[in-house]
Protein backbone atom coordinates (compact mmCIF):
# COMPACT_ATOMS: atom_id res chain seq x y z
CA UNK A 1 0.00 0.00 0.00
CA UNK A 2 1.10 3.51 -0.69
CA UNK A 3 2.01 5.94 2.00
CA UNK A 4 0.00 9.12 1.76
CA UNK A 5 0.76 12.59 2.96
CA UNK A 6 -1.89 15.01 4.08
CA UNK A 7 -1.16 18.57 4.81
CA UNK A 8 -3.76 19.58 7.36
CA UNK A 9 -5.18 16.48 9.01
CA UNK A 10 -5.36 18.03 12.44
CA UNK A 11 -6.95 21.29 11.42
CA UNK A 12 -9.59 19.31 9.63
CA UNK A 13 -10.42 16.92 12.42
CA UNK A 14 -11.37 20.08 14.31
CA UNK A 15 -13.63 21.15 11.49
CA UNK A 16 -15.61 17.92 11.49
CA UNK A 17 -17.11 18.89 14.78
CA UNK A 18 -18.17 22.35 13.55
CA UNK A 19 -19.72 20.98 10.38
CA UNK A 20 -21.66 18.54 12.48
CA UNK A 21 -23.18 21.24 14.70
CA UNK A 22 -24.07 23.60 11.85
CA UNK A 23 -25.70 21.20 9.47
CA UNK A 24 -28.59 19.89 11.41
CA UNK A 25 -30.44 17.19 9.58
CA UNK A 26 -27.52 16.28 7.36
CA UNK A 27 -25.89 12.94 7.85
CA UNK A 28 -22.44 13.59 9.18
CA UNK A 29 -20.07 10.72 9.74
CA UNK A 30 -19.60 9.99 13.38
CA UNK A 31 -16.57 7.78 12.90
CA UNK A 32 -13.22 9.22 13.77
CA UNK A 33 -11.30 10.09 10.64
CA UNK A 34 -7.99 8.28 10.74
CA UNK A 35 -5.20 10.77 10.54
CA UNK A 36 -3.81 11.24 7.07
CA UNK A 37 -6.16 8.83 5.37
CA UNK A 38 -9.60 9.98 4.33
CA UNK A 39 -8.98 13.58 3.35
CA UNK A 40 -9.60 13.59 -0.37
CA UNK A 41 -8.93 17.28 -0.94
CA UNK A 42 -6.92 18.64 1.97
CA UNK A 43 -8.55 21.70 3.50
CA UNK A 44 -11.48 21.47 1.05
CA UNK A 45 -12.69 18.10 2.31
CA UNK A 46 -16.22 17.72 3.76
CA UNK A 47 -17.66 14.95 5.88
CA UNK A 48 -21.22 14.72 4.60
CA UNK A 49 -22.72 11.45 3.48
CA UNK A 50 -26.12 12.85 2.47
CA UNK A 51 -27.47 13.96 -0.91
CA UNK A 52 -25.71 17.32 -0.28
CA UNK A 53 -22.26 15.74 -0.19
CA UNK A 54 -21.22 17.24 -3.57
CA UNK A 55 -23.01 20.54 -3.02
CA UNK A 56 -21.38 21.99 0.09
CA UNK A 57 -19.02 24.96 0.14
CA UNK A 58 -15.48 24.49 1.42
CA UNK A 59 -14.97 25.74 4.96
CA UNK A 60 -12.71 28.59 3.74
CA UNK A 61 -15.68 30.19 1.97
CA UNK A 62 -16.81 32.96 4.32
CA UNK A 63 -17.89 36.61 4.27
CA UNK A 64 -18.26 38.16 0.83
CA UNK A 65 -17.16 34.91 -0.79
CA UNK A 66 -20.03 33.13 0.92
CA UNK A 67 -22.51 35.65 -0.51
CA UNK A 68 -21.12 35.17 -3.99
CA UNK A 69 -21.08 31.39 -3.52
CA UNK A 70 -24.77 31.48 -2.57
CA UNK A 71 -25.56 33.73 -5.55
CA UNK A 72 -23.73 31.32 -7.83
CA UNK A 73 -25.49 28.32 -6.29
CA UNK A 74 -28.88 29.96 -6.80
CA UNK A 75 -28.13 30.87 -10.43
CA UNK A 76 -26.89 27.37 -11.06
CA UNK A 77 -30.21 25.90 -9.95
CA UNK A 78 -32.36 28.75 -11.28
CA UNK A 79 -34.92 27.33 -13.73
CA UNK A 80 -34.70 29.69 -16.69
CA UNK A 81 -37.93 30.79 -18.33
CA UNK A 82 -38.52 31.85 -21.91
CA UNK A 83 -39.16 35.49 -20.98
CA UNK A 84 -36.55 38.17 -21.57
CA UNK A 85 -34.49 39.69 -18.80
CA UNK A 86 -33.62 38.36 -15.38
CA UNK A 87 -34.08 34.63 -14.92
CA UNK A 88 -35.22 34.34 -18.53
CA UNK A 89 -33.58 33.71 -21.84
CA UNK A 90 -34.21 29.98 -22.05
CA UNK A 91 -34.01 28.60 -25.58
CA UNK A 92 -35.69 29.05 -28.03
CA UNK A 93 -34.15 25.60 -28.37
CA UNK A 94 -32.21 24.04 -25.54
CA UNK A 95 -31.12 20.78 -23.85
CA UNK A 96 -31.64 21.55 -20.12
CA UNK A 97 -33.37 24.42 -18.31
CA UNK A 98 -30.80 25.01 -15.56
CA UNK A 99 -27.29 23.80 -14.84
CA UNK A 100 -28.80 21.85 -11.96
CA UNK A 101 -31.37 20.15 -14.21
CA UNK A 102 -28.52 18.05 -15.62
CA UNK A 103 -26.14 18.30 -12.67
CA UNK A 104 -28.66 17.59 -9.87
CA UNK A 105 -27.08 18.33 -6.46
CA UNK A 106 -23.88 19.17 -8.37
CA UNK A 107 -23.83 15.56 -9.55
CA UNK A 108 -25.24 13.55 -12.41
CA UNK A 109 -28.98 13.63 -13.01
CA UNK A 110 -30.54 10.21 -13.65
CA UNK A 111 -30.18 9.62 -17.43
CA UNK A 112 -33.40 9.95 -19.47
CA UNK A 113 -31.61 7.54 -21.81
CA UNK A 114 -32.62 4.82 -19.39
CA UNK A 115 -35.83 6.24 -17.93
CA UNK A 116 -37.38 7.45 -21.19
CA UNK A 117 -35.43 5.67 -23.93
CA UNK A 118 -33.73 8.88 -25.13
CA UNK A 119 -34.84 12.51 -25.05
CA UNK A 120 -37.00 13.44 -22.09
CA UNK A 121 -40.65 13.98 -22.93
CA UNK A 122 -41.49 16.57 -20.29
CA UNK A 123 -39.39 19.52 -21.46
CA UNK A 124 -36.15 18.19 -20.13
CA UNK A 125 -33.31 15.82 -21.05
CA UNK A 126 -30.37 14.98 -18.82
CA UNK A 127 -27.67 14.66 -21.47
CA UNK A 128 -25.88 16.36 -24.32
CA UNK A 129 -26.03 14.97 -27.85
CA UNK A 130 -23.21 16.13 -30.16
CA UNK A 131 -23.78 15.78 -33.88
CA UNK A 132 -21.57 16.26 -36.95
CA UNK A 133 -21.34 15.11 -40.51
CA UNK A 134 -19.20 12.05 -41.14
CA UNK A 135 -16.43 14.40 -42.31
CA UNK A 136 -16.55 16.30 -39.01
CA UNK A 137 -18.37 19.40 -40.33
CA UNK A 138 -21.42 20.81 -38.55
CA UNK A 139 -24.92 20.90 -40.02
CA UNK A 140 -26.08 24.43 -40.83
CA UNK A 141 -29.57 23.95 -39.45
CA UNK A 142 -28.44 22.28 -36.24
CA UNK A 143 -24.96 23.26 -35.05
CA UNK A 144 -22.82 21.23 -32.66
CA UNK A 145 -25.40 20.13 -30.09
CA UNK A 146 -28.80 18.63 -30.82
CA UNK A 147 -31.26 20.75 -28.85
CA UNK A 148 -33.98 18.25 -28.20
CA UNK A 149 -36.17 20.63 -26.15
CA UNK A 150 -37.76 23.96 -27.06
CA UNK A 151 -39.88 26.70 -25.54
CA UNK A 152 -43.60 26.94 -26.27
CA UNK A 153 -44.36 27.50 -29.95
CA UNK A 154 -40.95 26.37 -31.20
CA UNK A 155 -39.95 22.92 -32.41
CA UNK A 156 -37.08 21.01 -30.83
CA UNK A 157 -34.30 20.32 -33.35
CA UNK A 158 -34.91 16.59 -33.11
CA UNK A 159 -35.36 13.75 -30.62
CA UNK A 160 -32.88 11.12 -29.56
CA UNK A 161 -33.85 7.46 -29.33
CA UNK A 162 -31.67 4.76 -27.87
CA UNK A 163 -31.85 1.04 -28.44
CA UNK A 164 -29.94 -1.28 -26.17
CA UNK A 165 -28.24 -4.44 -27.35
CA UNK A 166 -27.57 -6.83 -24.47
CA UNK A 167 -24.94 -9.53 -24.20
CA UNK A 168 -24.14 -11.83 -21.33
CA UNK A 169 -20.54 -12.65 -20.42
CA UNK A 170 -18.95 -14.90 -17.85
CA UNK A 171 -16.20 -14.46 -15.29
CA UNK A 172 -13.76 -17.42 -15.17
CA UNK A 173 -15.43 -18.50 -11.89
CA UNK A 174 -18.80 -18.87 -13.64
CA UNK A 175 -20.52 -15.72 -12.37
CA UNK A 176 -22.19 -13.86 -15.20
CA UNK A 177 -22.52 -10.19 -16.04
CA UNK A 178 -24.37 -8.39 -18.79
CA UNK A 179 -23.34 -5.36 -20.86
CA UNK A 180 -25.69 -3.05 -22.74
CA UNK A 181 -24.42 -1.32 -25.90
CA UNK A 182 -26.40 1.68 -27.11
CA UNK A 183 -27.40 2.47 -30.69
CA UNK A 184 -28.57 6.03 -31.16
CA UNK A 185 -30.96 7.36 -33.76
CA UNK A 186 -32.37 10.83 -34.14
CA UNK A 187 -35.95 11.30 -35.26
CA UNK A 188 -38.28 14.26 -35.71
CA UNK A 189 -35.64 16.54 -37.30
CA UNK A 190 -37.29 19.96 -37.44
CA UNK A 191 -35.67 20.88 -40.81
CA UNK A 192 -33.53 18.83 -43.21
CA UNK A 193 -33.76 15.16 -42.37
CA UNK A 194 -30.24 13.88 -42.02
CA UNK A 195 -29.62 10.45 -43.36
CA UNK A 196 -28.14 8.08 -40.78
CA UNK A 197 -25.18 7.39 -43.10
CA UNK A 198 -24.27 11.13 -43.01
CA UNK A 199 -24.46 11.41 -39.24
CA UNK A 200 -22.06 11.05 -36.36
CA UNK A 201 -23.75 11.31 -33.03
CA UNK A 202 -22.29 10.94 -29.56
CA UNK A 203 -24.07 11.16 -26.25
CA UNK A 204 -22.72 12.37 -22.89
CA UNK A 205 -24.30 12.22 -19.49
CA UNK A 206 -23.21 14.99 -17.11
CA UNK A 207 -20.10 14.75 -14.98
CA UNK A 208 -20.11 15.00 -11.20
CA UNK A 209 -18.85 18.39 -9.95
CA UNK A 210 -16.60 16.80 -7.35
CA UNK A 211 -13.28 18.65 -7.15
CA UNK A 212 -13.79 21.27 -9.87
CA UNK A 213 -11.64 23.86 -8.03
CA UNK A 214 -8.88 21.35 -7.34
CA UNK A 215 -8.95 20.29 -11.01
CA UNK A 216 -8.51 23.91 -12.08
CA UNK A 217 -5.66 24.35 -9.58
CA UNK A 218 -3.71 21.27 -10.63
CA UNK A 219 -0.15 21.95 -11.57
CA UNK A 220 -0.43 20.92 -15.22
CA UNK A 221 3.31 20.31 -15.36
CA UNK A 222 2.60 17.32 -13.12
CA UNK A 223 0.09 16.09 -15.68
CA UNK A 224 2.58 16.60 -18.51
CA UNK A 225 5.24 14.76 -16.53
CA UNK A 226 2.77 11.89 -16.03
CA UNK A 227 2.11 11.83 -19.78
CA UNK A 228 5.84 11.69 -20.44
CA UNK A 229 6.36 8.81 -18.04
CA UNK A 230 2.88 7.24 -18.09
CA UNK A 231 4.10 4.49 -20.27
CA UNK A 232 3.65 1.01 -19.00
CA UNK A 233 4.19 -1.24 -22.05
CA UNK A 234 3.75 -4.34 -19.90
CA UNK A 235 0.12 -3.26 -19.36
CA UNK A 236 -0.33 -1.49 -22.70
CA UNK A 237 -0.88 1.88 -21.01
CA UNK A 238 0.32 5.27 -22.25
CA UNK A 239 -1.64 8.45 -21.57
CA UNK A 240 -1.35 11.76 -23.35
CA UNK A 241 -2.44 15.35 -22.87
CA UNK A 242 -5.14 17.03 -24.90
CA UNK A 243 -3.66 20.43 -25.80
CA UNK A 244 -6.45 22.92 -26.34
CA UNK A 245 -6.56 26.52 -27.53
CA UNK A 246 -9.43 28.51 -26.04
CA UNK A 247 -9.78 32.30 -25.78
CA UNK A 248 -6.35 32.63 -27.38
CA UNK A 249 -4.63 30.54 -24.73
CA UNK A 250 -3.13 27.10 -25.33
CA UNK A 251 -2.88 24.69 -22.45
CA UNK A 252 -3.51 21.21 -21.13
CA UNK A 253 -7.22 20.42 -21.34
CA UNK A 254 -8.56 19.14 -18.03
CA UNK A 255 -12.35 19.32 -18.04
CA UNK A 256 -14.86 17.37 -20.09
CA UNK A 257 -14.93 13.68 -20.97
CA UNK A 258 -12.20 14.17 -23.57
CA UNK A 259 -10.28 16.82 -21.58
CA UNK A 260 -11.49 19.16 -24.30
CA UNK A 261 -11.72 22.37 -22.23
CA UNK A 262 -9.33 24.62 -20.32
CA UNK A 263 -11.92 26.05 -17.92
CA UNK A 264 -15.29 25.15 -16.43
CA UNK A 265 -17.19 26.20 -19.56
CA UNK A 266 -19.71 28.35 -17.71
CA UNK A 267 -20.35 30.61 -20.71
CA UNK A 268 -20.70 27.63 -23.02
CA UNK A 269 -23.01 25.87 -20.55
CA UNK A 270 -25.38 28.83 -20.50
CA UNK A 271 -25.26 29.34 -24.25
CA UNK A 272 -25.03 25.91 -25.79
CA UNK A 273 -26.89 23.82 -23.20
CA UNK A 274 -29.66 26.28 -22.32
CA UNK A 275 -29.77 28.93 -25.05
CA UNK A 276 -28.99 31.63 -22.48
CA UNK A 277 -26.95 34.39 -24.20
CA UNK A 278 -23.98 36.05 -22.51
CA UNK A 279 -21.02 38.30 -23.20
CA UNK A 280 -18.93 35.50 -24.66
CA UNK A 281 -21.78 34.02 -26.74
CA UNK A 282 -24.06 36.99 -27.48
CA UNK A 283 -25.93 35.27 -30.32
CA UNK A 284 -28.71 32.76 -29.85
CA UNK A 285 -27.43 29.25 -30.60
CA UNK A 286 -30.04 28.82 -33.31
CA UNK A 287 -29.08 32.10 -35.05
CA UNK A 288 -29.06 31.52 -38.79
CA UNK A 289 -30.98 28.25 -38.57
CA UNK A 290 -34.03 27.56 -40.71
CA UNK A 291 -36.46 27.88 -37.84
CA UNK A 292 -35.40 31.47 -37.11
CA UNK A 293 -35.38 32.38 -40.80
CA UNK A 294 -38.87 30.99 -41.25
CA UNK A 295 -40.05 33.50 -38.70
CA UNK A 296 -41.57 31.00 -36.33
CA UNK A 297 -39.78 32.78 -33.48
CA UNK A 298 -41.07 36.20 -34.35
CA UNK A 299 -41.92 38.28 -31.35
CA UNK A 300 -38.92 37.13 -29.34
CA UNK A 301 -36.36 39.80 -28.67
CA UNK A 302 -32.72 38.84 -28.89
CA UNK A 303 -31.22 42.25 -28.13
CA UNK A 304 -30.41 41.75 -24.52
CA UNK A 305 -27.91 39.38 -22.90
CA UNK A 306 -29.70 36.84 -20.72
CA UNK A 307 -27.04 36.45 -18.05
CA UNK A 308 -24.45 39.00 -16.91
CA UNK A 309 -20.73 38.44 -16.76
CA UNK A 310 -20.83 38.92 -13.00
CA UNK A 311 -23.48 36.23 -12.65
CA UNK A 312 -21.35 33.78 -14.64
CA UNK A 313 -18.38 34.61 -12.42
CA UNK A 314 -20.47 33.75 -9.38
CA UNK A 315 -21.34 30.37 -10.92
CA UNK A 316 -17.64 29.79 -11.59
CA UNK A 317 -16.80 30.69 -7.96
CA UNK A 318 -19.58 28.39 -6.75
CA UNK A 319 -18.25 25.39 -8.67
CA UNK A 320 -14.62 25.99 -7.79
CA UNK A 321 -15.36 26.36 -4.07
CA UNK A 322 -17.35 23.16 -3.64
CA UNK A 323 -15.80 20.77 -1.17
CA UNK A 324 -14.97 17.14 -1.84
CA UNK A 325 -16.50 14.39 0.30
CA UNK A 326 -14.08 12.48 2.52
CA UNK A 327 -13.73 8.75 2.04
CA UNK A 328 -15.85 6.53 4.24
CA UNK A 329 -15.47 3.12 5.90
CA UNK A 330 -11.75 3.31 5.49
CA UNK A 331 -11.16 0.86 8.34
CA UNK A 332 -13.50 -1.79 6.98
CA UNK A 333 -11.34 -4.86 6.20
CA UNK A 334 -13.22 -5.50 2.94
CA UNK A 335 -12.59 -1.91 1.79
CA UNK A 336 -8.92 -2.23 2.71
CA UNK A 337 -8.67 -5.50 0.81
CA UNK A 338 -10.39 -3.77 -2.14
CA UNK A 339 -7.85 -0.98 -2.07
CA UNK A 340 -5.06 -3.54 -2.42
CA UNK A 341 -6.98 -5.10 -5.31
CA UNK A 342 -7.25 -1.64 -6.96
CA UNK A 343 -3.45 -1.47 -7.04
CA UNK A 344 -3.13 -5.13 -7.96
CA UNK A 345 -5.39 -4.63 -11.00
CA UNK A 346 -3.27 -1.59 -11.97
CA UNK A 347 -6.28 0.72 -11.90
CA UNK A 348 -4.00 3.33 -10.30
CA UNK A 349 -1.84 3.56 -13.42
CA UNK A 350 -4.62 5.72 -14.94
CA UNK A 351 -6.80 6.52 -11.92
CA UNK A 352 -3.79 8.27 -10.31
CA UNK A 353 -4.36 8.42 -6.58
CA UNK A 354 -2.37 11.52 -5.64
CA UNK A 355 -1.72 14.83 -7.40
CA UNK A 356 -0.76 18.32 -6.21
CA UNK A 357 -2.11 21.77 -6.82
CA UNK A 358 0.08 24.69 -7.79
CA UNK A 359 1.03 27.16 -5.05
CA UNK A 360 -1.18 30.03 -6.21
CA UNK A 361 -4.32 27.87 -6.40
CA UNK A 362 -6.91 28.36 -9.11
CA UNK A 363 -7.89 31.47 -11.03
CA UNK A 364 -11.54 32.39 -11.55
CA UNK A 365 -12.97 33.81 -14.78
CA UNK A 366 -12.64 37.33 -13.39
CA UNK A 367 -8.99 36.82 -12.43
CA UNK A 368 -9.56 36.31 -8.67
CA UNK A 369 -7.23 33.70 -7.24
CA UNK A 370 -8.53 31.07 -4.87
CA UNK A 371 -5.30 30.70 -2.93
CA UNK A 372 -6.91 28.23 -0.51
CA UNK A 373 -6.71 25.73 -3.34
CA UNK A 374 -2.95 26.18 -3.55
CA UNK A 375 -0.26 23.69 -2.48
CA UNK A 376 -2.74 20.95 -1.61
CA UNK A 377 -2.22 17.22 -1.83
CA UNK A 378 -5.33 15.80 -3.46
CA UNK A 379 -6.69 12.35 -4.29
CA UNK A 380 -8.73 12.63 -7.48
CA UNK A 381 -8.09 9.07 -8.73
CA UNK A 382 -7.36 10.40 -12.20
CA UNK A 383 -4.35 11.37 -14.30
CA UNK A 384 -6.58 13.68 -16.40
CA UNK A 385 -4.92 12.16 -19.48
CA UNK A 386 -6.43 10.65 -22.60
CA UNK A 387 -6.39 6.89 -23.03
CA UNK A 388 -7.46 4.67 -25.90
CA UNK A 389 -10.30 2.68 -24.35
CA UNK A 390 -10.76 0.30 -27.29
CA UNK A 391 -13.35 -0.43 -29.96
CA UNK A 392 -13.71 -4.19 -29.57
CA UNK A 393 -16.17 -4.99 -26.80
CA UNK A 394 -19.53 -5.85 -28.42
CA UNK A 395 -17.97 -4.58 -31.71
CA UNK A 396 -18.06 -0.95 -30.57
CA UNK A 397 -16.25 -0.59 -27.28
CA UNK A 398 -16.20 2.92 -25.91
CA UNK A 399 -15.28 4.38 -29.32
CA UNK A 400 -17.71 7.14 -30.29
CA UNK A 401 -15.87 8.24 -33.47
CA UNK A 402 -15.98 11.84 -32.24
CA UNK A 403 -12.83 13.95 -32.31
CA UNK A 404 -12.30 16.69 -29.68
CA UNK A 405 -9.01 18.56 -30.04
CA UNK A 406 -6.32 15.89 -30.08
CA UNK A 407 -8.67 13.25 -28.66
CA UNK A 408 -9.71 10.61 -31.14
CA UNK A 409 -12.97 8.67 -31.07
CA UNK A 410 -11.56 5.90 -28.91
CA UNK A 411 -9.80 8.23 -26.46
CA UNK A 412 -11.27 9.41 -23.16
CA UNK A 413 -10.03 11.36 -20.17
CA UNK A 414 -9.67 9.13 -17.10
CA UNK A 415 -12.76 9.99 -15.05
CA UNK A 416 -11.84 11.18 -11.54
CA UNK A 417 -13.29 8.67 -9.09
CA UNK A 418 -13.37 10.83 -5.96
CA UNK A 419 -16.89 11.01 -4.57
CA UNK A 420 -18.10 8.24 -6.93
CA UNK A 421 -19.24 6.06 -4.01
CA UNK A 422 -21.81 8.70 -3.06
CA UNK A 423 -23.36 9.06 -6.54
CA UNK A 424 -26.17 6.71 -5.56
CA UNK A 425 -27.01 8.79 -2.47
CA UNK A 426 -26.64 12.13 -4.28
CA UNK A 427 -28.37 11.22 -7.54
CA UNK A 428 -30.24 8.00 -6.86
CA UNK A 429 -28.59 5.87 -9.53
CA UNK A 430 -25.37 4.06 -10.45
CA UNK A 431 -25.13 4.75 -14.18
CA UNK A 432 -21.51 5.31 -15.19
CA UNK A 433 -19.23 6.06 -18.18
CA UNK A 434 -19.50 8.95 -20.62
CA UNK A 435 -22.94 7.96 -21.88
CA UNK A 436 -24.23 6.18 -18.79
CA UNK A 437 -24.30 2.76 -20.47
CA UNK A 438 -22.84 1.00 -17.40
CA UNK A 439 -25.55 0.27 -14.82
CA UNK A 440 -23.20 -0.49 -11.95
CA UNK A 441 -19.53 -0.59 -10.98
CA UNK A 442 -18.85 -4.04 -12.43
CA UNK A 443 -20.22 -3.08 -15.84
CA UNK A 444 -18.19 0.14 -15.80
CA UNK A 445 -15.00 -1.86 -15.25
CA UNK A 446 -15.91 -4.54 -17.78
CA UNK A 447 -16.32 -1.90 -20.55
CA UNK A 448 -12.61 -1.01 -20.14
CA UNK A 449 -10.79 -2.12 -23.33
CA UNK A 450 -7.79 -0.85 -25.28
CA UNK A 451 -5.26 0.53 -22.79
CA UNK A 452 -7.62 -0.62 -20.02
CA UNK A 453 -7.80 -4.20 -21.30
CA UNK A 454 -4.96 -5.67 -19.19
CA UNK A 455 -6.26 -3.99 -16.04
CA UNK A 456 -9.81 -5.15 -16.75
CA UNK A 457 -8.56 -8.72 -17.19
CA UNK A 458 -6.68 -8.61 -13.88
CA UNK A 459 -10.04 -7.71 -12.27
CA UNK A 460 -11.88 -10.32 -14.29
CA UNK A 461 -9.58 -13.10 -13.12
CA UNK A 462 -9.88 -12.26 -9.43
CA UNK A 463 -11.96 -14.38 -7.08
CA UNK A 464 -15.51 -13.18 -6.51
CA UNK A 465 -14.51 -12.15 -3.03
CA UNK A 466 -11.74 -9.90 -4.33
CA UNK A 467 -13.94 -8.40 -7.07
CA UNK A 468 -16.56 -7.59 -4.44
CA UNK A 469 -13.84 -6.06 -2.26
CA UNK A 470 -12.67 -3.85 -5.11
CA UNK A 471 -16.23 -2.62 -5.63
CA UNK A 472 -16.55 -1.99 -1.88
CA UNK A 473 -13.42 0.14 -2.15
CA UNK A 474 -14.93 2.16 -5.04
CA UNK A 475 -18.00 2.73 -2.88
CA UNK A 476 -15.76 4.16 -0.18
CA UNK A 477 -14.41 6.88 -2.52
C1 LIG B 1 -28.37 19.43 -20.88
C2 LIG B 1 -27.60 19.02 -19.75
C3 LIG B 1 -26.58 19.99 -19.19
C4 LIG B 1 -26.76 21.29 -18.77
C5 LIG B 1 -28.04 22.12 -18.83
C6 LIG B 1 -25.48 21.72 -18.24
N1 LIG B 1 -24.56 20.70 -18.34
FE1 LIG B 1 -22.63 20.77 -17.70
N2 LIG B 1 -22.29 18.96 -18.55
C7 LIG B 1 -23.23 18.20 -19.18
C8 LIG B 1 -22.57 17.09 -19.85
C9 LIG B 1 -23.26 16.03 -20.67
C10 LIG B 1 -21.19 17.21 -19.58
C11 LIG B 1 -20.07 16.34 -20.14
C12 LIG B 1 -19.70 16.98 -21.46
C13 LIG B 1 -18.58 16.34 -22.20
O1 LIG B 1 -17.69 15.80 -21.61
O2 LIG B 1 -18.56 16.41 -23.43
C14 LIG B 1 -21.05 18.40 -18.75
C15 LIG B 1 -19.83 18.85 -18.24
C16 LIG B 1 -19.70 19.95 -17.44
C17 LIG B 1 -18.46 20.36 -16.80
C18 LIG B 1 -17.13 19.62 -16.86
C19 LIG B 1 -16.94 18.83 -15.61
C20 LIG B 1 -15.69 18.00 -15.53
O3 LIG B 1 -15.57 17.20 -14.58
O4 LIG B 1 -14.80 18.08 -16.38
C21 LIG B 1 -18.74 21.51 -16.12
C22 LIG B 1 -17.78 22.29 -15.24
C23 LIG B 1 -20.14 21.84 -16.36
N3 LIG B 1 -20.69 20.86 -17.15
C24 LIG B 1 -20.78 22.95 -15.85
C25 LIG B 1 -22.07 23.35 -16.23
C26 LIG B 1 -22.65 24.64 -15.91
C27 LIG B 1 -21.98 25.74 -15.13
C28 LIG B 1 -23.90 24.66 -16.46
C29 LIG B 1 -24.91 25.78 -16.47
C30 LIG B 1 -24.43 27.05 -16.99
C31 LIG B 1 -24.09 23.36 -17.10
N4 LIG B 1 -22.96 22.60 -16.93
C32 LIG B 1 -25.24 22.98 -17.73
C33 LIG B 1 -24.58 18.44 -19.22
C34 LIG B 1 -25.19 19.64 -18.93
C1 LIG C 1 -5.94 2.81 -19.32
C2 LIG C 1 -6.41 3.68 -18.27
C3 LIG C 1 -7.40 3.11 -17.29
C4 LIG C 1 -7.25 2.01 -16.45
C5 LIG C 1 -6.06 1.09 -16.34
C6 LIG C 1 -8.47 1.93 -15.69
N1 LIG C 1 -9.34 2.93 -16.04
FE1 LIG C 1 -11.17 3.26 -15.29
N2 LIG C 1 -11.51 4.70 -16.67
C7 LIG C 1 -10.58 5.14 -17.60
C8 LIG C 1 -11.22 6.05 -18.52
C9 LIG C 1 -10.54 6.75 -19.69
C10 LIG C 1 -12.57 6.14 -18.13
C11 LIG C 1 -13.69 6.93 -18.83
C12 LIG C 1 -14.33 6.04 -19.90
C13 LIG C 1 -15.67 6.54 -20.42
O1 LIG C 1 -16.34 7.32 -19.76
O2 LIG C 1 -16.07 6.09 -21.50
C14 LIG C 1 -12.70 5.29 -16.95
C15 LIG C 1 -13.88 5.14 -16.23
C16 LIG C 1 -14.00 4.39 -15.06
C17 LIG C 1 -15.18 4.32 -14.23
C18 LIG C 1 -16.49 5.06 -14.46
C19 LIG C 1 -16.44 6.42 -13.82
C20 LIG C 1 -17.69 7.22 -13.99
O3 LIG C 1 -18.02 7.98 -13.08
O4 LIG C 1 -18.36 7.14 -15.03
C21 LIG C 1 -14.90 3.47 -13.19
C22 LIG C 1 -15.82 3.08 -12.05
C23 LIG C 1 -13.55 3.01 -13.39
N3 LIG C 1 -13.02 3.59 -14.52
C24 LIG C 1 -12.91 2.11 -12.55
C25 LIG C 1 -11.70 1.49 -12.87
C26 LIG C 1 -11.15 0.37 -12.15
C27 LIG C 1 -11.75 -0.24 -10.91
C28 LIG C 1 -10.00 0.01 -12.80
C29 LIG C 1 -9.10 -1.17 -12.50
C30 LIG C 1 -9.73 -2.46 -12.59
C31 LIG C 1 -9.83 0.93 -13.90
N4 LIG C 1 -10.87 1.80 -13.92
C32 LIG C 1 -8.73 0.94 -14.75
C33 LIG C 1 -9.26 4.77 -17.66
C34 LIG C 1 -8.72 3.67 -17.02
UniProtKB/TrEMBL annotation:
Cytochrome c domain sequence ranges: 333-477
Keyword terms of this UniProt record: Heme, Iron, Metal-binding
Highest taxon of the lineage: Bacteria
Keyword Heme: yes
GO molecular function, one term: cytochrome-c peroxidase activity
Annotated PANTHER family: CYTOCHROME C DOMAIN-CONTAINING PROTEIN, CYTOCHROME C PEROXIDASE-RELATED
The protein's name: C-type cytochrome
Organism: Candidatus Bacteroides avicola
Amino acid sequence: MQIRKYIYPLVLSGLIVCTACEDEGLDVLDVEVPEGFALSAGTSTNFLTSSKAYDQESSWITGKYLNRFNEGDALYDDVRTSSNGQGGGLGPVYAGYSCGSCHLNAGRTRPTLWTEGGSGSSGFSSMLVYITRRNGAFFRNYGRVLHDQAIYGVEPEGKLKVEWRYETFEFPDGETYELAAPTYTITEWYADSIRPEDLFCTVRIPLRHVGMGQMMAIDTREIEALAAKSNYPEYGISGRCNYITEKGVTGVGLSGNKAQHLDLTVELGFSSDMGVTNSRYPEEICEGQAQVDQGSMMGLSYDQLDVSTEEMEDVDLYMQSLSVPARRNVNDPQVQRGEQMFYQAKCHLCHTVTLHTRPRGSTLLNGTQLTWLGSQTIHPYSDFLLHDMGSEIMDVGLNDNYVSGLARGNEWRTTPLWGIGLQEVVNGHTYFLHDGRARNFVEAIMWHGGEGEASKNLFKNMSKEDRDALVAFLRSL
